[in-house]
TrEMBL record:
Top-level division of the source organism's lineage: Bacteria
Protein name: Sugar O-acetyltransferase
Gene3D superfamilies: Hexapeptide repeat proteins
PANTHER family in the record: ACETYLTRANSFERASE C18B11.09C-RELATED, SIALIC ACID SYNTHASE-RELATED
Amino acid sequence: MSHDLVNFPFEDLGTETHWKREGELLHRFNHLPYGEAQERAAILAELFAQAEEVIITPPLAIARGHLIRFGRKVFINYNAQIAAAPGAPITIGHHTIIAPNVQIQTGTHPVDPTERQKWAYCAKGITIGNNVWIGASAIICAGVTIGDHSVIGAGSIVTRDIPSCVLAGGNPARVIRELTPPDESTLYALNP
């Protein structure tokens, strides 16, 4: 098993105290009528470690929102599943767009059958850079870093790091081609 994974024994499952409050907030968020942007933003501010100028279309499923940080002007479409674990946070950069049905999961299970009997699960953090677009139904697995300005194709399963300024896709996701790097001095001029 990788030494940089955080391991959790079965005895620790269910001992966390945040579940009830997080569940109540998620229920409120997912059942608000459309047009309640201010109340939705207030709930997001309570659910996540950082969520300034973030728009999320319900329904949303999360685990341990207090370990998830968003940059500014992030948009997440419906049916997102975002699950962090203790010691394995999730960071999503500024101006990132996440399409419907995307899963971002820091938790995994040991492949070795003996290890799997010792540990309920293991986890490793995920970092998604600035100005990334993740296509519909993509899955971002534990330990992955996606570089700035990259695009992840719809339905891709990202199991390893993706560099900046590339189009990646497939199962497992691989770099398909490089993208032209943006002019950083003017990139956000229309949408600061």
